[in-house]
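Postdoc handover notes: sequence design on the structure in folder B. Input tokens:
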């Protein structure tokens, strides 16, 4: 009789622990979702806006172990100064250089220079990097693409 009572008590404790664990897991999910959201930005009609002439540059074909460079031109189409905070690429073969040292005034142009060092793997490539600024469109993704040839003799590189 005592054995049956202990089994029932153990079963009740296990069921209760499962419910508590489930409740804690649900609370954690909602809490994590709340912290993962960005705070709402106020709509500033005068805020800077970064507008690029092109967001993708095609190098065409380039030689293996070569260096390809290009520039992305942008304009501050907003009414306040644009401040570029960071340019970051996903790999070391793509190196963007941003004008982070001075604000870009309204209607002024600026450039972001990009260097791509071809690796030892010939074939097509498609690399992206991100520009982060104080603009309405605070994150802009730019792309470079092309094809790395096996032999330098086959190159008809566009720069």
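Designed sequence:
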């Amino acid at each position: 009789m005592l054995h049956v009572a202990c089994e029932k008590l153990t079963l009740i404790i296990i069921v209760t622990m499962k419910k508590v664990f489930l409740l804690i897991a649900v609370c954690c999910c909602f809490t994590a979702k709340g912290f993962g959201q960005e705070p709402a930005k106020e709509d500033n009609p005068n805020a800077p806006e970064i507008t690029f002439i092109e967001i993708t540059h095609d190098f065409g074909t380039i030689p293996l172990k070569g260096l390809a460079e290009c520039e992305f031109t942008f304009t501050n189409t907003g009414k306040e100064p644009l401040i570029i905070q960071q340019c970051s690429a996903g790999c070391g073969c793509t190196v963007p250089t941003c004008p982070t040292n001075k604000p870009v005034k309204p209607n002024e142009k600026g450039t972001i220079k990009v260097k791509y060092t071809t690796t030892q793997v010939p074939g097509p490539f498609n690399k992206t990097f991100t520009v982060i600024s104080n603009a309405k469109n605070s994150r802009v993704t730019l792309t470079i693409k092309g094809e790395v040839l096996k032999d330098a003799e086959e190159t008809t590189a566009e720069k």
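Context for whoever picks this up: The longest strand covers residues 123-133. Don't rerun without checking with the PI first.
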